[in-house]
Amino acid sequence: MIEVKLIGHDGFYGISDVLRLFFGNVKEDRGEHRVFSESEEDLRIVSEVSDGAVTYVEGERDLWEKTLRERFPEVIEPKREIKRQLYFLLSKKTGKDFPWGSLTGIRPTVVAKEVGTAEKLISDYMVRPDKARLCIMTKDNEEKVLGLSDEDAMNVYIGVPFCPSRCAYCSFVSEEISHHLGRLGEYASALTDEISYVGRRIKKMSSLYVGGGTPTVFSDEDFEKVMRAIKDNMPVNGKTEITVEAGRPDTITDRKLKAMKEIGVQRICINPQTLCDETLKRFNRKHTVAEFYSVFEKARKMGFEIINTDLIAGLDKEPEELLKSVEGLLELGPENITIHTLYKKRRAALSRQEVLDGDDGLDAVLGKAYEMLECKGYKPYYMYRQKDTSHGLENVGFALEGAECIYNVAMMTDRRNVIALGAGSVSKRIFEGGRFERFSSPKDVLIYIRDHEEVAKRKVDFFGNGVEDEVSEM
Fold first, then answer.
1. pTM for the full model?
2. Distance (Å, rounded) from C-alpha 474 to C-alpha 472?
3. 105 prior amide bond cis, ω within 30
4. Does residue 444 share a domain with residue 358?
């Protein structure tokens, strides 16, 4: 068993994150103030905070305290200090290291902004040099994009948590249309009610993002209904960035593309995830590579200014398949290309072992994919990480100059207000000094449909003077 005993602090979350990197599943015993992982190895560690922090193997306190003091002469914030000490100790004991070192948080650019240089990420947090460079570059581009969004403007998210089928790697959607065909019309009606109520109260809007799930899962009629509600009630104008995550090529029709164009959508996402038909079929994606190419061409002919395409690194049996997909996208020339790394979602059909015990070549192949994108003028501008990601890797959005998505940066940085509509959506209100609060809508679609009017009113109250007090009722 691998066990970490916590003394003088309650940093269970950070300790668990680091232990999970090295040993997989972990358990917390808060009563006994310990975190542990079942393993054939036997290692007893103490993470102690009193006047300072020290992490050591039981019986070896003096040795590890001296070693840590020499390695990290500058003490950092306690929560990060206990994580980096534990990471350093486990790395020495196991001979393993990970691309992001002791940074286990979902937003590494936050730390990059604080320390300022790749060298500090490497020395202070043991981040690998290529990742440190990527992080600083992303942070710099992120700051430029954030400057395009007014601090006092709202960024709006409209969520549609339905998909035509559940991909084997996904647990995101709360309802599958295949099991709830009769609910999509009701959901569209509830959503348009909320759009009407909240939208007419928004004073100023910087960006709008319609996401999911798969928003284009609606029938043509219901999709047009939602688009009209946006046009009639939201304060959109020629300067408002509007994005629709069309996502699945098999759900995109000519009428839906036309409906998007009519309300001024400039950006759409058409996501193949891979350009390998065998892999698409294996992961229950109900479309082909040919369908992706066909829809992409239609969108281009209809004049959409910016198209984003997503790929997932780690889907394919052979990591090099990712490079073939990147090559295929580069031939098409989408303005945005986002590469996600496969990770174990809680309710996904994939097992944790299938995700995390993949080919060790994925890390190197991902680096090659980034190089291919940079050579073609794509720059990283937003980044996030998730737990249980293959090889401890990351998700990065790349864009050609001037084609970055303002909403993505506003949402990721926790420095802009986001008012989110629809079931399972999470709004975020930013206060002076960087503090923020969240408001969560009901995840259950049926509860949202039933309570959407009350939810909309509470959401308006949550934002206070960020929206108008009274306009007209639903």
1. 0.90
2. 7
3. no
4. yes
Q: Residue 434 belongs to what domain range?
A: 144-460
- Total length of the chain: 474
Alpha-carbon distance of 133 to 118, in angstroms, equals 6
> Which residue's entry shows tokens 């808060």?
30
> Is 166 in the same domain as 83?
no
* Biggest alpha carbon–alpha carbon distance for the chain: 71
In terms of Cβ atoms closer than 10 Å to its own Cβ (0-12, 13-18, 19+), residue 14 is buried
Q: Please determine, for residue 175, whether its predicted confidence score (pLDDT) is greater than 50.
A: no
Q: Cα separation of 288 and 248, whole Å?
A: 10
CB 145 within 8 A of CB 381: yes
Q: Is residue 67 in some structural domain?
A: yes
In terms of domains, do 80 and 215 share one?
no
What is the DSSP-derived secondary structure letter of residue 8? S
Q: Among 45-49, 139-143, 145-149, 311-315, which stretch is predicted with the lowest mean pLDDT?
A: 311-315
Residues 6 or more apart whose Cβ sits within 8 Å of residue 223: 188, 215, 216, 255, 256, 259
Q: CA–CA separation, 363 vs 341, rounded Å?
A: 10
